[in-house]
Amino acid sequence: xxxxxxxxxxxxxxxxxxxxxxxxxxxxxxxxxxxxxxxxxxxxxxxxxxxxxxxxxxxxxxxxxxxxxxxxxxxxxxxxxxxxxxxxxxxxxxxxxxxxxxxxxxxxxxxxxxxxxxxxxxxxxxxxxxxxxxxxxxxxxxxxxxxxxxxxxxxxxxxxxxxxxxxxxxxxxxxxxxxxxxxxxxxxxxxxxxxxxxxxxxxxxxxxxxxxxxxxxxxxxxxxxxxxxxxxxxxxxxxxxxxxxxxxxxxxxxxxxxxxxxxxxxxxxxxxxxxxxxxxxxxxxxxxxxxxxxxxxxxxxxxxxxxxxxxxxxxxxxxxxxxxxxxxxxxxxxxxxxxxxxxxxxxxxxxxxxxxxxxxxxxxxxxxxxxxxxxxxxxxxxxxxxxxxxxxxxxxxxxxxxxxxxxxxxxxxxxxxxxxxxxxxxxxxxxxxxxxxxxxxxxxxxxxxxxxxxxxxxxxxxxxxxxxxxxxxxxxxxxxxxxxxxxxxxx
Length: 491
Ligand code: UD1
Ligand code: CA
Prior knowledge:
Blueprint lengths: L6 E6 L16 E2 L2 E2 H11 L4 E6 L3 H11 L4 E4 L6 H14 L8 E5 L7 H10 L4 E7 L8 E5 L2 E6 L6 H4 L3 E9 L1 H8 L14 H9 L4 E5 L12 H21 L3 E2 L5 E3 L4 E2 L4 E2 L3 E4 L3 E2 L4 E2 L4 E3 L2 E2 L4 E2 L2 E4 L2 E2 L4 E2 L3 E3 L3 E3 L4 E4 L1 E4 L1 E3 L4 E4 L2 E3 L1 E3 L4 E2 L4 E3 L9 E3 L4 E2 L4 E3 L2 E3 L4 E2 L4 E2 L8 E2 L11 H5 L4 H15 L14
Parallel strand pairs: 1-4, 1-6, 4-5, 7-11, 12-15, 13-16, 14-17, 15-18, 16-19, 17-20, 18-21, 19-22, 20-23, 21-24, 22-25, 23-26, 24-27, 25-28, 26-29, 27-30, 28-31, 29-32, 32-35, 33-36, 34-37, 35-38, 36-39, 37-40, 39-41
Antiparallel strand pairs: 2-3, 6-10, 7-10, 8-9
Helix pairs in contact: 1-4
The structure holds uridine-diphosphate-N-acetylglucosamine (UD1) and calcium ion (CA).
Uridine-diphosphate-N-acetylglucosamine binds next to strand 1, helix 3 and strand 10.
C-alpha cells in the first residue's frame, strides 16, 4: 500500500505566452474542465493532506476559478517566475508558515497537463521509496524537455535542453516535470539551488543532481502512457489533448455499454453520465453534468448542456440546455429546448419548436413550428402547428396554463396570462386573450367573408383573373349555378 503524500504542489504560475490568450493558460478547457481542474482531479486521487497551487500570471482569474471549482486547495503567489525550483521553494515555505507537518512525501506536478491521470500518480507513489522518484517517459522526439541522465538504474541528473551536451540531447528519456520527493530531503536541498544555468533560474531539476551527489538514491518511474505527461503550450497542443481526452472518454463509455457509430465525432464532457444501452449518434456534443438513461438515442447532430434524458427517449438534431426530457419522449429534429423545459413521459417536441421554462405533460405533443414559453401544458394535450405562447407584453413575462387533453388549433396565439380549461378546443388561427372554460370551443378570429368576382374586376389582366374566368366558364358549362359576384360589397 502506497503512503498518502503530505502535499501535492501544482506549478501554475507561468504565463503561457504561446496560447496568445487573455485568459491564463491553465484555465483553458478540455472536455468541460480547465487544464488545472484536470490536474487537481488527478492529484486528489492520491489523497494528499494538502494541495498547493503556485499561481502568478493571471493570479486573480486563477484564484477565482479555484475558489469556484476547488475551494479546498491552497494557493500561494509567486510574484516573479524565477524558476520551477523557486516555485516549489515558496510553496514549501507557505506550507511551513501554515504549520503543515510534512511527514509523508511531497509530490510536484505541472498545471498544464490535463491528461495526467490519478492512476499514473498512484503508480508513481507505489514506485516511490527513494529520496526522489521522477516521473519520466520515453518519447520519439525529446526536443525541448529535460533529459534523464542515468548511471545504471539510478538517475544521477536531469539536464535541460539548453544546458545539455550533444550526447545528452540524444537521450530519449525525458523529465515530465513531475516528481515524488522525500519531504525532508527536498526541504533541505531546495535551499541550495543556484541559478548558474542558461536561463538564470532556480531549476527544480537541479535537486535531483544534488540528491544524487549527496549519495541519496533517485529513481525514475516511466509513465505507462506518455500522453499523461503531455503539456499544453499552444492551441494546437490544446486540440491534441482534447482529441486524446475524447478518445479516452468515448472508449470508457463504449466499454460500459454505450453504442457510438462514430466516436471521433462525439464529444463528451468529463461530468456526463451515460447508462448502458444508450446510443450516441454522430456529431453529438454532451456537456456539463448531462445524464442519459438506458435505451435513449441521442443525435445525430445534437448538443445537450446539463440535461437529463429519460429511458428510451429519442433526441434528434436538437440543441438543449438545462432541459429534462422524460421517459420515451421524442425530441427533434431541429428543436431548441431552453432552460426549464421539461417534457413528460412520452411527450413530443417536434420540428422547429422552441420551449423554455415550461412543463409539457405526459403524452402531450408540440409537434411543429411552435414557441412555448412560461407555460404548463397538461397531459395528453396537443398543440397545433405554429402556435405561439405569447408570454411577453414588451415589459414582463406572463404564464399560460393549458389543461389536460386540450386541442389547440394551428396558428393560435395564446396571449398570457391566460388559462385554457381541461378538454377545451381553440379554433385554428385564434388569438386567445381570455380564459377558456373546460370543454369549450374558443374562436378568437374575424369572420371570413368572400368578395365574389373581385379578381376579375380589380386585376383583369392577371393570370389569376384568367384562371378565375376559366373556372367560372367551366362551372357554367357544367350547369352549376355561376356566381354573379355581388354577394358582398367591396371596400
Ligand atoms: C520543465 C523542466 C523540464 C521538463 C519540463 C516538462 C525545469 C527546470 N525543467 O521545463 O526538465 O522536461 O518542465 O514540461 O524544471 N512554473 C512556475 N514558476 C516558475 C517557472 C515555472 O510556476 O517560476 C511552472 C510553469 O507555469 C509550468 C511548469 O512550472 O506549469 C513548468 O515550467 P516551464 O517553464 O514550462 O518549464 P520547462 O522549461 O518546460
Ligand atoms: Ca513547459
